[in-house]
Amino acid sequence: MFKKILIANRGEIALRIIRACHELGVPVVAVYSTADALSLHVRFADEAVCIGPGPSRESYLNIPRIIAAAEITNADAIHPGYGFLAEDPNFSRICQDNQFTFIGPTPDVINAMGNKAQAKATMIEAKVPVIPGSAGVVRTVDEARQFADQVGYPVMLKASAGGGGRGMRLVRDEAGIEMGFNTAKGEAEASFNNGDLYLEKFVVNPRHIEVQVLADMYGNVVHLGERECTLQRRHQKLLEESPSVFVDPALREKMGGTAIRAAKAARYVGVGTVEFLMDKDHNYYFMEMNTRIQVEHPVTEMATGVDLIKQQIRMHAGDRYPDFLENIRLRGHTIECRINAEDPGKKFTPSPGKITSFHMPGGKGVRVDSHAYAGYEIPTYYDSMIGKLIVHAHTRERAINRMRQALEECIIEGPKTTIPYHQAIMRDPAFIKGDFDTSFLDNFIYQPTE
Question: So what's the pLDDT on residue 291?
């Protein structure tokens, strides 16, 4: 096991990793910006090092300062959490070069899976089902037009180095291919400094299903079931649950086997997620592999009882995964709502500022992952997520009822939040029936109660 772990992140995920490290008996170093000086991850770490001012590029994205912090505190491992540098192959390589264990994939794996076109080619070779489209990068508008003619419209143009919905354009017919290509390419270059695009057949009214995998250094891979991540706004997840109402036990094992095959093809080590799109006929297609711990990992933890962060650390410390994971099955039903400092009544405008009152729910089957507290000032520099509210119950119906009650008890005053938006979703008949796809929130009518 490691002697000391530095966490190259902030907020709720930094606090979550601190808890796992302390349970393993490992001291923790927190890094923080001046904007986060009063954050809870700084208070609960064993040591803390300020690495710069508020803007991410001067602090949490500043690799030399993070490495220097690890050196002066004698850390021997660095956990990147999610976001920031978690999927940066250069950071992974620099950690290796400076004799720090990067608690994440190798640079080669991050490159292979982070480049969507390369990842797709790897999956095709491993006989993992992929969405029909280009085998690699499309270089010109004419090439994009050729592939679109082959697979049929509508098609989706996607940035090879992309994520978070940037560098993506839906093209419904040939008339829109040139504008779609140029717009997506320009956005990809601006966002990722890489304008490469690939093209896929657009799956109409799909569901977004992801499978959690865990792999050790010895070629052993296990899956821990699926998460339903279909409820998204502008390609950003707002609510996740497990199991999916659309996946039966036989399909779960089939998808799990496919995810294991994908992880082995990528020579993956640690905790990762294989994401699929599924059509109305239960055909599923590889979309991407996230080479990090996911925001929504508590859903799987509540559904299985497995501490994913602790297992991730153990895998990177050289442990084999324990045999009991082979027999893990999803139990009951889990739902997670992301609570963001945004005003859903005003097109989700960010709402930073001071939290004047803060009360989180409790009771059986309720979990809260948050770094916020009364008096906490939400910075303007970072993601707007205040925390995650997760509930578990015996059935989906009971989980929805438990989430309704938990949201009612969730009090955050000062900034506007997405709490009332989630309350509206919990009352929606289509959601309650499990009748939704990725367009659900695009058509969801939210009426603020104020």
Answer: 93
Domain(s) labelled CATH 3.30.470.20 in the chain stretch across: 207-433
Helix H, strand E, coil C: the string for 62-76 is: CHHHHHHHHHHCCCC
Fold classification of 5-103 (topology level)? Rossmann fold (3.40.50)
Looking up tokens 């520099």 gives 381
Query: 145 and 174 in contact (C-beta within 8 Å)?
Result: yes
pLDDT at residue 164, as a whole number: 66
Q: Which CATH architecture has domain 132-201?
A: 2-Layer Sandwich (3.30)
In this structure, what is the dihedral angle of CA atoms 183, 187, 192, 198, given to the nearest 10 degrees? -30
Peptide bond before residue 243 is cis, with ω within 30 degrees of 0: yes
- Cβ within 8 Å of residue 248, ≥6 positions away: none
Q: Are 178 and 141 a contacting pair, CB within 8 Å?
A: yes
145 is a catalytic site residue:
no
Rounded (5°) CA angle 165-282-389 = 50
Q: What are the residue ranges of CATH 3.30.1490.20 in the chain? A: 132-201
Cα separation of the two ends of the chain: 53
Q: Which residue in 292, 338, 367, 402 is the catalytic one? A: 292
Task: Kindly report, residue by residue over 71-105, the tens digit of the pLDDT.
Answer: 999 999 999 999 999 999 999 999 999 999 999 99
Please give the model's pTM, rounded to 2 decimal places. 0.90
Helix, coil or strand: residue 418? coil
Nearest residue to 31 via CA among 13, 16, 14, 19: 14
Q: What is the pLDDT of residue 93?
A: 98
State residue 240 phi and psi, 5-degree precision: -130, 155
pLDDT of residue 450: 59
Q: Give average pLDDT by consecutive 10-residue segment, the chain, 450 residues.
A: 98 98 98 97 98 97 98 98 95 98 96 84 92 88 94 92 81 95 93 90 93 96 97 92 97 97 96 95 93 97 97 96 88 98 94 96 97 96 95 98 98 97 97 96 85
